[in-house]
Every structure is written in C-alpha cells, then in structure tokens.
Amino acid sequence: MQKKKILMVSDHPYSTSGVGCQARYLMHGLVGTGKYQFFCLGAAMKHLNYDLQKMGDDIMVKPIDGFGNKQMMMQLLVELKPDALLLFTDPRFFGHIWSMSDVIHQFCPIIYNTIWDNYPVPTFNKSVYESCDTLNCINEVAFNSIKEILPNYAEQGLVNYIPHGVPAETFYPMGADEIQTMKNRLLGTARSDHFVGLFVSRNARRKCPSDIIFSWKLFLDELERKYGHRKATLLMHTDPFDHEGPNLIACAEKFGVIDNVVFSKDRTNFSEMNTVYNIADFVINLSSAEGFGLSLLEAKMAGKIGVALKTGGLSKQIFDEKTNTAFGVAIEPEVKTLVGTQGIPFIYETYASHETYASSFMKLYEMPAAERHRLGMAACEHARTEYSLLNTVLQWDKSFDKMFDAWNKKELPNNTKFVVKSF
Prior knowledge:
Layout: E1 4-11, H1 18-31, E2 36-44, E3 53-54, E4 59-65, H2 70-80, E5 84-88, H3 95-99, H4 101-104, E6 110-114, H5 126-130, E7 134-137, H6 140-149, H7 151-155, E8 159-161, H8 176-187, E9 195-200, H9 209-227, E10 232-237, H10 248-254, E11 261-263, H11 270-279, E12 282-285, H12 294-301, E13 305-309, H13 314-318, E14 319-320, E15 325-326, E16 328-331, E17 335-339, E18 347-351, H14 354-366, H15 369-386, H16 389-408
Helix pairs in contact: 1-16, 8-11, 9-14, 12-15
C-alpha cells in the first residue's frame, strides 16, 4: 500500500508547546499505522537551527518562522504533491491558507485540527470552515458550533469530535515515598508538609494568574484563621515576567504571599513535568477562556485532581456527566462577559469570584488525603479512558479514510471527475 503523504503546518512538533506536543503525538501515532508519511512545517517565532530535520523514515520537519506564506505553500504543493494538507493551530495564523484554499484544492484536500474557546457560535468563522474538507474538533464547543454552521458537513461525517490524548507512559502516578522525596528535593524540606496547588500554563491575561495569586492569599488567610498556620505553597510553572501577562512577583509581594509562592520558569522534559504534577496535591486552571486545558489532562494522568472553571474544554475534563463526578472542584461560572476584537467580533469570557476560588482550595485542603488519592485515581482512569491517545489516533485515521473517499468522488460543476493537477 502506498503511503499517503501529509503536508502538516503546526507549532514545531518537537517543541514544548501544547500544540507542538499534540502534533508530535498525532504524527507519530499516524505514522505507526504504516499508512502515512509527514512533511511538517514546524512553526516558532525563531529557531536556533533551520536545517531540514529527518525524524525517522516517514517524518521530515522544516523549521520556519511563523506559519509560512503563499509562496512557500505553492512551492511545497508543486514539489511534494501531498495527498492532504493538515493544519493545526488557531485559525488566525492561517490567513494565507484560507485566502488560497481554491488553489490548494487543485492539489489536495485540507483537514483542520481545530478548537474554539467558547460560545456564542462563531458564525464569523464560516468561510474558514468552508475552506476545509474535514474538520476534527478538539472540544465540544467547536464540534457543536461547526455542526450548526455547516450542517451538510455534519451529515457527511466530515465534522468529528476528537479530543487530545496523552501517552500513559509519559504522565503517570508515582509512589508515595518517591513523591515525598521529590517534593523535599524540589520545594525544600521546610515545605515537606505543605499543601501544594499547581499552576502550569503561560503567564497570560486569559489564564488569570494574578487572580490565582490573590485567591491563594484569601485561602492562606482562612487557613491561618481556622487552623493556625499557613502551610500551603502555590507552585507556578510559568514565567512571572512574560510580557503577555502581569508581573507575578510584584503581585505575590503586594498581597503578602511571596513566601508561599514558588516559581518554576525553566523548560523541563516530560519526566521532570511528571514529577512536578506528582508532588502537587491539585492543579489549578481558572482561565477565562480555555479551549482545552492540557495541564488538567496531564495532571489527571498523573493521578491528581483539579480546581477548574466549567468553561470550554475544561468542562468535560473536570466533570464527568456520565457518573456525575467532579474530579476535584468544578466551578460554575458566576459572570459571563461578551468580549471581542475586529477579527473575533464576539466570544464569552467566564469568571467566578476570588472568594469562590479560595473556598475551592479550602475544600480540597479539608478533603481527607485518602479521599483525594481515591479521586485522583478515578481522574487518572477517566483521562486514560476518555482521552486515550490510541483512540485519538484511530479516530484520526478513520477521518482521513472518510475524507479521501469523499475527495476521490468529488466532481466539478461540469460533472467531470475532479483531477489533481500541478501548475
């Protein structure tokens, strides 16, 4: 069987970004079926090395600044003659693709791994979605929205809900003794008995990191009032000086919690990140807009529970509707604001109060350690079942088969067979 040649555009698949990691998992999984080979344009703001990288017999990665341009895309279409173009990241980065989709369709179909943070249904994205031949949706917000916008695609099975998956061998629960040893090593013996909350994300406005710090201050105040101590540490794996977010050091100093906040800003490998998840008692994701929330999934794989807003892709992760189980504290949004830009005219952002966040932290603190562990193991099982990487790959493989079948049957207005041609 001749392998399908896929031209992919995403974050560099060997970078540490969430999109990059997921692109790598998907690419390796599909190559493992023996049916595909990939040429990937690996995007970043800047690279140290721009040489073409061969990652096995069926994976080639070309580092690029940004996400390419029309000239680059035309050259690759002509030279590679791909069987499909796979896109993976925010639609605003692919303006050059959408504007030349008619040209691309003279070579191959377009399949898009897409997501959307929140409602209302983004009807303004209709032209983007119509530029694609198959839309694989990472969360249900995107899936439900696109089905409403393009009901004909839904009827043909060209819109699919396929959430992210994470390898079980990458994030997993460690033993209690090992966790305590690593906790002492990473946080110091003075914090060996501290209750640890973990934030893993970019320091950016929509991630609400300063709200988390202030809520932690309220939690510490209540902890001292009720129990006479402040033995709790907020571990923030982020850059406190990121230009996209607030100065988190200044925030921690302002609210008097600098001794109870530890920052970890260095890039770490998967093994180190698994350790970071394991030494925490719970993970925190209170983003006002969150398409998926990969840190919550990774923490659950490591057997940890969370505090998260029921918004975007977080809703299904923090709360299992089938069993009516919250894997920690699932916070119902208390305020919903309608915001937007010229490119995104309307979208909801969701919030709850600092007091609600602080009481959620206290709820987990007061939960018996055995119950937190039991719930963490349930979270791990839910993550491995509902977000299985194997299932993600199998569903993607199935969607490719369906798309290629539809593509081969595609007809032009004059009723002649659609022929892929070069210029």
